[in-house]
Amino acid sequence: MNKRTTALSLGITLLVLIAGTVGGSFYMLKYALSPENRGKDMAGSLTYMEEMYPQITPWVDSLQKAHALRDTFITAPDGTRLHAFYARASRPRKETAVIAHGYTDNAIRMFHIGYMYNRSLDYNILLPDLRYSGLSGGNALQMGWLDRKDVMQWIDTAPALFGDSIEAVVHGISMGAATTMMLSGEQLPAYVRCFVEDCGYTSVWEQFSKELKERFGLPPFPLLYTASWLCQWKNGWNFHEASAEKQIARCHKPMLFIHGDKDDFVPTWMVYEVYKAKPDPKALWIVPNAGHATSYLLYPEEYTQRVKRFVEDNLNDRP
């Protein structure tokens, strides 16, 4: 084989590798950020939640009967229409919970946490549908990074819903927990007093690296790098910058960290990393025998009491 033929062969091989990597990156981005989204099935989500958490059924029924569970919409700066449910406490109260849902979920799939705050603790609640979920617009999930800005916008609307003197906790599970940590590093209104994150990941890069290895047996290079560049081009953010761990290092408001010790989707080691990165004040509860996002399901009373103590210890403190 002469040098010319060898160079041509190498060139073709390189083009095939590049094409495969680019094609794989497009596939990965669609697979990860635009999956078939169960969060769009509102009726199915409510059925599922009432089967998993039967205690919420009379609460939801009573809210609906009284027309107390309401819809509200806002428009993001990029024109995306965003939806949330909200309900007021049984009497005028300043205590308010903003509740963020997980990956391929929706606000309805956080009704158990809404029940905890509204029914058990008698707080106002605001439950946004994140992008590409529920009744909100958007063509892709944003893994908490762009969602942090949307939740900040929801936080800004909360006084108009519940009164100017509110004091708020932000509580998220899974991707919603990552969203909570990511927004905690931003400049927030003084009425946001504290945070609860339940099984959130350290960063999109580390979570996707773990999934790429487990699901496809592939290392981060080169596919995760090119998919991250593609995400930057399509969505305006990349996997490296979408870091809860970096954001939380800038947060000086109280945060409660909750994570199951049997979580193999967002591995338990991640909570130790974000907890270490967070300045005081903070608290940590490692939940025995709990898998991913199952801590409330397994221990509803203890979960409620731990959250109640933490939030009430911090919600009325003035910065």
UniProtKB/TrEMBL annotation:
Keyword Metal-binding tagged: no
Span of domain Peptidase S9 prolyl oligopeptidase catalytic: 142-316
InterPro entries, A to Z: AB_hydrolase_fold, DNA-binding_regulatory, Peptidase_S9_cat
This protein's UniProt keywords: Hydrolase
Molecular function terms from GO: hydrolase activity
Superkingdom to which the source organism belongs: Bacteria
One Pfam short name: Peptidase_S9
Name of the protein described by the UniProt record: Alpha/beta hydrolase
Taxonomic lineage from the root: Bacteria, Pseudomonadati, Bacteroidota, Bacteroidia, Bacteroidales
